[in-house]
Amino acid sequence: MSLARPAAPVLPWRDISPRESTVAVVGGGFSGLMALVHLARAMPRARLSLFERRPLRAPGVAYGGCDRSHLLNVPAGRMGAFPDDPGAFHRWLEARHPGAYRPDDFAPRALFGDYLLETVSASLAEAGDRIALVRDAVVHVDRLPSRIELLLASGRSTVADAVIVAPGMPPARAPWNRVDHGAPRAALIADPWDPGATEGIDPGAEVLVLGSGLTAIDVAQGLRRAGHVGVIRMVSRNGRLPQPHAVPGEPPAALDAAALAGGPSAAMHAVRALARARVRAGLGWQGAIDAIRPHVTAVWQSWSPVQRRRFLRHARPAWEVHRHRAPRAVLDDLGQQMIEGTVVVERGALVALHPAPGGAVEAQVKGPDGVWRSHRVARIFNCIGPAMGISDTVDPMLASLLRSGLAVEDGAGIGLRTGPDGELVGRAGAGDDRILLVGALRRGDLWESTAVPELRVQAARAAAHVAAALAGVQS
Q1: What is the mean predicted confidence (pLDDT) over 454-469?
Q2: Most C-beta atoms within 10 A of its C-beta, which of 8, 55, 161, 304?
Q3: Taking 90 as the threshold, does the pLDDT of residue 468 lie above it?
Q4: What is the average pLDDT value for the chain, to the nearest integer?
């Protein structure tokens, strides 16, 4: 659905950071900005700063890198920015586009971005000049005796009494990093959300999308809307698209947490049994996956590090296509293109890139049968998703935290270890009340740590923890 959108507020980014703040927030996506909003409410006299290396038109890649037709993957009625008011986003939609979206609809992500901008802008207006939004990257964090110093990419530094780190998920290295034999760089799109990523492609040429998850689907949709008619070939390790969301209105399912606590094998058996029972009853299997969500964190934390790694190694691909689902209309459209042969989804791994005439790329893909197949493509999009191993990060701030011992890997090696409210646990084994983590890098401790329903709780709890720790320090 295409609706006219009033101009969204523009956040007042600046290039010079304050010399000091009561609390500094690192990261301008949903988690960071909502942590800032909660801090502004809880600490009405504090001076706050937020650092983002690449501000987009809306918060984060999810809402600032999308186009106007990309859809949310959580129904509008559950996407409110505050934990105690999940229906706020749908009320916002009703006020601006009456009757256009039901609570169980998947609204455009760009509209959610506008809603977030209005939410943040209202908080900034109330706070006045005590909040600074800074366009700069934090590259090093140093723990002083009573404060925290942040070194910035610009060469400047700033200090704060406390820091909330909300960097999002660090990207993986581009999958062609070790197999590129001189392919033209203009044809290799490491970040599919970069402006111009889909521009200048021959409309009839074949393109290669590495990955077949939600980002890959977004790229395919964006190409079609831009007029591309050539073959879109998606290659991923499992060769599977996300599964569809359930039909709205189905009754929820219930699952005993005890059935999930015995380890990955027992949990998968219990979920499959419940899914089969629902299908026999004429309902969607999706309710079985949704029944896990209230128990995910407790069950994940009850598993040993060995059990968590076993799940990541063997069950994660199947979990992701069933848990991170896509709207049915989107999948129906892709399915029709697959029947017509204009979208191809296949299992495989990229093994070599070579230059081809006319600025094209000869991409060689190794299939599960061990056979190498060659595809001449005009462009290759990296949609493989974030890095799973935190030790491989090339993010300078995260590398700094690990190197200094202010942070350590979680037991599964996919994020950073934290306390209950996000207190960063360092090499000494204790949580730091002055350095807190919010967002996807808590996945090793919580597992569910990427969607708004989880992130809004994390942002509120981290801000409340900081406010309590700094009681009496506000200036």
Answers
A1: 96
A2: 161
A3: yes
A4: 91
Tell me the pLDDT tens digit for each residue of 6-39. 667 889 999 999 999 999 999 999 999 999 999 9
The amino acid occupying position 127 is: A
Q: Alpha-carbon distance 446 to 433, whole Å?
A: 19
| Phi, psi (degrees; rounded to nearest 5) at 391 | -70, -20
Quote the DSSP letter at residue 246: P
Mention every residue, 6+ apart, whose C-beta is less than 8 A from residue 271: 255, 260, 288, 289, 292
What residue has token string 């507020």? 9
What's residue 475's pLDDT?
A: 46
DSSP states of 314-376: IIHHHHHHHHS-B-HHHHHHHHHHHHHTSEEEEE-EEEEEEE-GGG-EEEEEE-TTS-EEEEE
Distance CA 393, CA 192 (A): 19
Among 122-126, 224-228, 232-236, the range of highest mean pLDDT: 232-236
**pLDDT score recorded for residue 2:** 47
Residue showing tokens 């960063």? 424
pLDDT for the residue numbered 367: 95
Contact 245, 325 (CB under 8 A): yes
Long-range pairs of 191-197 with CB within 8 A, sequence gap ≥ 24:
191/382, 192/218, 192/219, 192/381, 192/382, 192/383, 193/61, 193/64, 193/65, 193/66, 197/381
Burial of 397 (0-12, 13-18, 19+ CB in 10 A): buried
Given a contact cutoff of 8 angstroms between Cβ atoms, the answer to whether 166 and 27 are in contact is yes
Kindly report each contact of residues 313-317 with a partner whose C-beta sits within 8 Å and lies 24 or more positions away, as own/partner: 314/264, 315/264, 315/268, 317/237, 317/238, 317/240
pLDDT at 1: 46
Largest CA-CA distance found in the chain, in angstroms, rounded: 67
Q: How many residues does the chain have?
A: 475
Q: What is d(CA 148, CA 223) in angstroms, rounded to the nearest whole number?
A: 45
Neighbours of 126 (CB within 10 A): 13
- Check if the beta carbon of residue 233 is closer than 8 Å to that of residue 209: yes
Lowest-confidence pick of 166-175, 237-246, 421-430? 166-175
Categorise residue 249: left if φ over 0, alpha if ψ from -120 to 50, beta otherwise: left
- Structure tokens given for 359: 């600025």
Give the integer Cα–Cα distance in Å for 344 and 207: 10
Q: How many helices (H) and strands (E) does the chain have?
A: 14, 17
- pLDDT band with cut points at 50, 70 and 90 for residue 469: very high
